[in-house]
Amino acid sequence: MRNLICLALSSFILAACASGVKEGERVFIVPSDAAHLSNCKLLGPVKVEAEIFSKWDANEMRKEIKFRLRDKAALEYPDGDTVAHGDLNVGGWGTPDAEQMGTVFKCFGN
User: Fold this and answer.
1) pLDDT digit string, tens, across residues 7-38
2) pLDDT tens-digit series, residues 53-92
3) pTM confidence score
4) How many domains does the chain divide into?
C-alpha cells in the first residue's frame, strides 16, 4: 500500500511539473539585428510588462524579459516562430524599463 501511495504521489508531482511548460518554448528569441530576419515574414509587435523587482541581477532580468516576450509572441501570434528584441538595458535604478517591445516573425516553414 505504501508503495502504491508513493507511486501515485510521484506521478502527481511529475504531472504538475510537466504542466508548467510555457507555450513559448517553440519560439526562438533573437536580437533585432539578426541577419536571417530579412528572409522572414513580419507578423507584428508584442509588448510585455517588464516590472521586475531587483531580486535578480541584470542578466537574470534580461533573461526573464526575453522569456516574457517569447511567451507573449506565442500567445498573440500562433503562427509565429521567432521574436526579435531590441536592447534590453537595465536602467539606473537597477531595473529595466516598465515595458519592452519585440517583433514577431514567421521564419520557418514559409
Assistant:
1) 444 444 444 444 344 678 889 999 999 998 99
2) 656 677 788 888 889 999 999 999 999 999 999 887 666 6
3) 0.71
4) 1
CATH number of the domain to which 102 belongs: 3.30.1660
3-state secondary structure of 81: coil
**Is 50 within a domain?**
yes
**Residues contacting 44, CB < 8 A, separation 6+:** 76, 77, 103, 104
**Domain assignment of residue 16, yes or no:** no
Of 63, 62, 66, the closest CA to residue 96 belongs to 62
Q: How far is the C-alpha of 51 from the C-alpha of 92, rounded, in Å?
A: 14
Strands 82-85 and 28-31, how do they pair?
A: parallel
Closest CA to 101 of 63, 61, 69, 53: 69
